[in-house]
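seq as requested:
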Amino acid sequence: MPRYDLKVNGKSQSVTVDADTPLLYVLRDNLALRGPKFGCGLGQCGACTVHVDGVATRSCLLPVSALAGKKITTLEGLTQNGQPGKLQQAFIDEQAAQCGYCINGIIMTSAALLSSTPQPSDTQIKDALAGNLCRCGTHQRICAAVKRAATA
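struct tokens:
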């Protein structure tokens, strides 16, 4: 099996896995990062979203062999000194999660949005999050959390 050197959350990591192993499995099974979740395995729900070179990416679809020289950031990488980052804190303050399963993908997608659009409109937030499935019905709180983080 080949060895892959990855840059995850600012740290160099090495894993020995098959070339077609999805990044999601590497993150969860080999690196014990629990932020990204397995939802559908088809890239449709967003629960597995991470950033690859700053772009929100579905990790269930991305083979580890495609990541040479790429910077990978997971939900855990958004923390600041072991504390929730401003976006994560906004989700806590707005009580934007219920079951919490989708929140990894929603926060990671929101972080990418805020990186490119620091003061997004409600429409921009809704458009950015359209590909993330949440069945709990906290959409208004999610939008409020993204707005809160934008003004923090």
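Strands lie at 3-8, 11-16, 49-52, 55-58, 71-73.
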